[in-house]
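Supplementary notes for students who missed Thursday's class. We covered one full example, reproduced here. Read the sequence, then the structure, then the short commentary at the end.
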Amino acid sequence: MSMPITPIPMVDLRTQYHTLKDEIQSALNDTLESTAFIMGPNVQAFENEAAKYLNCQHALGCASGTDALHLALRALEITKDDEVIVPSFTFAATAEAIRYVGATPVFVDIELDSLNINPEKIEQAISDKTKAIIAVHLFGLPADIGAIQSIIDGKDIYLIEDCAQSFGAEYKKKKTGILGDMGCFSFFPSKNLGCYGDGGMVSTDNDELAEKVKLFRNHGSPVRYEHSIIGFNSRLDEIQATVLRIKLKYIDKYNQNRNLAAKRYTLKLSELGIQTPIEKSESSHVFHQYTLLDLRRDSIFKALQRNNIACAIYYPKGLHAQEAFKDNSVIKDLAITEYATSNCLSLPMFPELSEQQIDRVVDIIKEAI
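Structure (token representation):
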């Protein structure tokens, strides 16, 4: 009788949890005993530790990465008369937040090699209504921030970083999240730095913007039961902050392990004519996802699934093609985006991914093509 095939997941949160189990459970017991569940000492400590790690003045916890984007746009006073330039090849939250404030997303194309927003397309899309650009550091590779900043230099245009997939990545020796006016992070469980529920964070060096975010995330209340503006309920809870404080200590190790796994993937796949993720000399990639581009994508996808190997298509449809954005956006030429959605495939990627698992994934791909 043949032995059952052991599945390979996209993300293995269980293995990581068991590695940290004693440390996390001890800290969670202390938090539960304290009964300080909202905006307690662990939230404040995590914010301080995250700000130190990123080397910024303010790191402000909130309820999710989506809320981080929303709060940043609110703090920058972007409204219904404004346009925000954004890639179409990204998760819906990036553009949802633009619609939350009534502004218009302007979808522009990406670079074929990096899959990040194309600075040349940004320059072509700027109008007298452009108020901000959201640069997504997709899959963990920083966008070309230098090129973007040179385009908007001297213009009244804000730069927001969507760092949902890039915690710990660097561009010219600076962490993502401190390169623009505001950085927005997600701590969804599968992220490089993930909690055990939803969570997010806004980073900035601007004191005024930080104060606005603090107001918006907590019902517009600077003092309890006093409300200076209409705000929201978007607070990072104490339990999630407790988990994040522990996992933050290991984030560099986790990202290093992801990078090692990516290098092995690339080495093994380099002779198959598959477009593998690029790395740039001025950046450090943290490989939230390891994403291929190949015309044989569907065959590879089916072969991996048949062999109990998880894989995923991020993203099968650009935001410009989504029903939610059909009537309230500006759509530019998106030829590369269309190509990417038709041919992209993400392979299993997590810090504990073994060489044997990587080799098995690659062997199945070789058989499929």
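Commentary. The mean pLDDT is 97. The CA atoms of residues 142 and 331 lie 24 Å apart. If anything here is unclear, bring it to office hours.
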